[in-house]
Amino acid sequence: MANVIEYATPISFTKTWHTEPYPFISPSRPELSTKGKNVVILGGSAGIGNAISVAFAQAGPKSVAIVGRRLDKLQEAAEKVTAAASDRATQVLVESADLQDRAQVDCAYQSVVDNVGNIDILVINAVLLPAPGGLTDHKPEELVRAIEGNLLMVMNAFQAFLPFAGPEPVVLYTSTCLANIAPTPGLAGYTISKATCLKAMDYFAMENPHVHVVSIQPGWVATASNRYQEEAPDKAELPGQFYVWLASPEAKFLKGKFVWANWDAQELLERASEIQSTKLLNWVVEGIPM
Domain of life here (predicted)? Predict the structure, then answer.
């Protein structure tokens, strides 16, 4: 019998904790409209990524482009996104690319721009999953491959994005809470590789202050990557719609921050001034706010 990984009980930053979507983050809210925007989702063909693609389509953008490796899966996902679009004029594009290959990422972005114009919102949702296990017994070369693969995808994604970005670019990165909570037994390789990427996103945000960057713990959703865990309590539509809210003007105060999709967006907004002016929700050592 496979070992069962025991996850820490989450502590919420907001009084309200969500496991499914709610009206304040609904893509149908006029305040969250993406009218005229071009959205690109990397890793958007299944699970949380597909829910993100669907949610953005519901917000009425000019286009939604899904980028991934398998063309057949991309085409299946595109059908769902097209059906969900609130505006029939929304173009749904698919681009097949290995995100670890910079040239392929460049080609995918170029194709999107040639079809619809500059990219306004980029969602980096792709990930490589190393085998679970303890760090003491982990083969170093396997861990290095996981770090290299995930970091390549993230760096290719944001470096290639800058020349194609619109005037008010948004980058949303699917991270994991494992990168900034107490160690979880059995998940050393995944956690270390994602922590590396999270710090890379911090540097990208610092070096490019004109880009609205937010890193997200998307919730615990039953997906293929976790073998559809029955105990996973969150609906994929929760992060899907939360990402739409994060890309809206309402969430500008979260620039450079790390947030959980389970947190209540309205409560976060009520604390906007405090969050924006302090190190709250930044990845720092507690007690040393620098």
Answer: Eukaryota
Is there a contact between 64 and 113 (Cβ–Cβ < 8 Å)? no
What gap in Å lies between CA 222 and CA 232, rounded to an integer? Answer: 5
Q: Which tokens sit at 237?
A: 């539509």
Count structural domains, the chain: 1
Domain containing 97 — which CATH number? Answer: 3.40.50.720
Q: Reading across the β-sheet that carries 63-68, which strands appear in turn?
A: 91-96, 63-68, 38-42, 119-124, 165-174, 212-217, 258-260
pLDDT tens-digit map of 56-88:
999 999 999 999 999 999 999 999 999 999 999
Asked if residues 113 and 124 have their Cβ atoms less than 8 Å apart, the reply is no
Distance CA 196, CA 177 (A): 13
Percent of the chain with pLDDT over 70: 94
Burial level of 184, CB count in 10 A (0-12/13-18/19+)?
middle
In a domain, 24, yes or no: no
d(CA 138, CA 78): 38
pLDDT score at 1: 35
